[in-house]
Amino acid sequence: MKQQKAEKILRDPGRYAHHDRIFLNNPVIMQGMGLAPLVVLATSGRNALMLAVAVALLLTPSRVISFFLSKLVPLEENASEEELRAKLLPRGLLYCGTAAVVYLAVYPILDHLFGVELLTLGIYLPMLVVEPLLIYRYGRVQETPRKAVSKGLRVTVGYAVVLLLVGCIREWLSTGAVFGVAVTANTILMPLASMPAGGFILLGVISAVWRALAARYRAFLTNEAHSHIIVNQQKEARGKP
Q1: Residue 131: enclosing H or E segment and its boundaries?
Q2: What is the pTM for the complete model shown?
Q3: Among 10, 41, 120, 240, which one has the highest count of C-beta atoms within 10 angstroms of its own C-beta?
Q4: Which segments of the chain are extended strands (E)?
Q5: CA atoms lying within 13 Å on the CB side of residue 214
Q6: How far is the CA of 157 from the CAs of 23, 27, 104, 112, 154, in angstroms?
Q7: What's the confidence (pLDDT) of residue 171?
Q8: What Å distances lie between residue 66 and 52, 58, 70, 129, 153, CA to CA?
């Protein structure tokens, strides 16, 4: 572990974990974002892949464009109730409108990649333009363009990981295959997995295990950082005349 990383962890473990949108602060597992398309549509690896690609093409571009447009209706960090009432609605419409415009540009790409398979996603594909995963920043203070890109990419990867994990497990449990390739031939372990109820159950189990592992990993990182700092301090002390 590098000295700078160890100091950052010990300075504020919660903030360090907050920036890890893949494991320690996954948008689905820790914040409950993107649940509707996940539990309804991610019934197979292929569906999960289509959703992941759609989110990848939508999230970061719409977030960056919204950053520039939201300057028209800036929101202060300690905004009063009157300011929130006046600005949240136009900011929300602005973010949703931006996502909708990006969606219109992205759809031909998705159609070229997946063709008629996109129809299996139904209404939930265009509904991504109002998904909190994409637009939740409308109620937050202004961020920098660099942060918009960085955080957008990290959230995309974190959501895609959960999508593919849930989709592949549900396909395996309900059909015995993953991406159409038979894994446990003629064995269907849980037909309910292909239904939204099964998606909620599976996601609940995954979330419980994920959160437990994340808590243990956070404790491990803190201990490792503390040990690293102590070892470096001892080395510096021995090196002094």
Answers
A1: none
A2: 0.86
A3: 41
A4: 177-178, 181-182
A5: 20
A6: 10, 10, 22, 22, 5
A7: 94
A8: 21, 12, 6, 12, 15
Q: Which residue has the tokens 């939508």?
A: 58
Question: Which distant-in-sequence residues (6+ apart) come within 8 Å of 176 by Cβ?
Answer: 182, 183, 184, 185, 186, 187, 188, 189
Terminal CA-CA length for the chain: 27
Q: What is the tens place of the pLDDT at every residue in 87-133? A: 888 888 888 999 999 999 999 999 999 999 999 888 889 999 988 88
User: In this predicted structure, what is the pLDDT of residue 31?
Assistant: 87
Q: Which two tokens stand for residue 216?
A: 């243990």
CA-closest candidate to residue 102, choices 138, 141, 128, 132: 128
DSSP 3-state of 190: coil
Residue 122 structure tokens: 């139904």
Q: Are 21 and 151 in contact (CB under 8 A)?
A: yes
pLDDT tens-digit series, residues 38-56: 999 999 999 999 999 999 9
Contact 21, 154 (CB under 8 A): yes
